[in-house]
């Protein structure tokens, strides 16, 4: 079943059996304005019915194969994937894959063969022996503040990461992070959280779109919600762009009004 409030997703998507081409068209980034493309930041997150963003410290137990298919499609459309360091550590993040199915479209869009992973970190404590640093298709970026420990910055660079300064202290300013990525030519931005990072992106007003999978599960407990940190003064209003359903999982796409 598929439906869309602005016609982006129609019944024919279901008939195309959730093909990668169908999903890629359905989730296409907005056409950039000629001459001065503005960054567009979308988040992709999964939540249970009772609001849990993870189970046993990972999102995989609340996900599903179709969710992962959309996850892969969203990556394939993005220039860069922005992610918090704790998600990298807990989920054992690997570099984004080069996928033959998307090679021609990425080349036509002027994109690298795979999106870069851009990790947000203040402490810069990583295992640089992991594939994210040893064998990415495109160099992994690390976004940090100007006051980050110089020896850790040096270690990151020695490991082949491109360190990008996007804050005056040790932390990253979300607005500067988006600007810095745009200055590197990355305007189709995707964030995969986690909740602590997403909360800051929401609060800073830089999130344009949320792709949210609602998993038909209840986990109780004290798991994080998809966005954490201090609450915003006034709730940010988003509108539903499209909604897909499969096997009880809802795949919503919301855009800020
Ligand atoms: N449901 C979902 O869709 C989903 C998606 C992603 C993750 N998750 C789950 O969420 C959990 C991890 O998320 P999390 O919220 O705890 O952590 P997170 O947001 O992934 O990462 C937090 C870390 O990011 C860095 N960071 C965040 N904001 C920063 C800033 N402004 N400046 C500099 N560094 C900053 C810090 O790294 P340093 O400590 O290195 O300084 C901080 O410790 C995992 O259990 C994961 O499975 C769920």
UniProtKB/TrEMBL annotation:
Listed under GO biological process in this entry are:
riboflavin biosynthetic process
Question: Hydrolase: is it a keyword of this entry?
Answer: no
Keywords, A to Z, come to:
NADP, Oxidoreductase
- Superkingdom classification of source: Bacteria
Task: Enumerate the spans annotated as Bacterial bifunctional deaminase-reductase C-terminal domain.
Answer: 39-242
Pathway the protein acts in:
Cofactor biosynthesis; riboflavin biosynthesis
InterPro entries, alphabetized = DHFR-like_dom_sf, RibDG_C, Riboflavin_Biosynth_HTPR
Question: Which GO molecular function annotation, any one, does this entry have?
Answer: 5-amino-6-(5-phosphoribosylamino)uracil reductase activity
Gene3D superfamilies according to UniProt: Dihydrofolate Reductase, subunit A
Pfam families linked to this entry: RibD_C
Recorded hits in PANTHER family, A to Z, give:
2,5-DIAMINO-6-RIBOSYLAMINO-4(3H)-PYRIMIDINONE 5'-PHOSPHATE REDUCTASE, DIHYDROFOLATE REDUCTASE FAMILY PROTEIN (AFU_ORTHOLOGUE AFUA_8G06820)
The name of this protein is Diaminohydroxyphosphoribosylaminopyrimidine reductase
State the organism of origin.
Answer: Streptomyces viridochromogenes
